[in-house]
Amino acid sequence: MARITKPVEERRQEIIDTARALFVEHGFDGTQVADISRKINVASGLVYHYFKSKQEILYAVFDQLSDERLEIFHKILKEARGSVLDRLNLIFENKFECKDDFEIYDKLAEGIASDPAIVEHCRAKISTSMIPLLISLIEQGNADGSLHCEHPRETAMFIVQGAAGFMPKIADLSDSERRQNAQAFADIICRVLGAKGY
Q1: Are residues 160 and 188 in the same domain?
Q2: For position 4, what pLDDT does the model report?
């Protein structure tokens, strides 16, 4: 069979998409670079041309998942009406109600939670993508008087880190328990932000 040459970005994305599917299906430990290369019908050396290791491929998969989630949040904020608190609520309800996300993260997390470099990469990616979004919302709330938050940047960091620590613990909850947790987390955030009425 003749080898198909693809543009660099297209081939790189194909590797990421294939790895993501295999990591979800077989787990990170259960997938080898050879499995990825075999699935896309290329030599393993070609995969290593794009990524130095399986861990580096995992970083790219997590980056893609994070970017997809951020895109959803931006869409929610663009289409949402109401106060800053209403829009924040929509984001956190969406974050906690996406069962598919939990299943993907659970599958990817198997076998990697003990790797501090991967855990730190994921935290850094979440922070760099979500913190500016939250800072913007907090500043809007401060400007319109619905929030009283003296330290928007630090508060946004606190919220993001809290969500990152809280999220894995709710992956196995029922839908109603997950909604209840989302509401509890939203209430905590409102208090931290100095929202009126809290």
Answers
A1: yes
A2: 63
Of the CA atoms within 13 Å of residue 85, those in its CB half-sphere come to 22
Record the pTM: 0.71
- Smallest CA-to-CA distance from 178 within 97, 88, 69, 95 is with 97
- Is the backbone of residue 53 left (phi > 0), alpha (psi -120 to 50) or beta? beta
Question: d(Cα 168, Cα 173) in Å, to the nearest integer?
Answer: 10
- Alpha-carbon gap, residue 143 to 149, rounded angstroms: 10
CA end-to-end span of the chain, whole Å?
66
Q: Which structural domain range is residue 32 located in? A: 8-50
Q: Among positive and negative, which fits the CA dihedral 36, 40, 46, 51?
A: negative
| pLDDT at 172 > cutoff 80 | no
CB atoms within 10 A of CB 29: 11
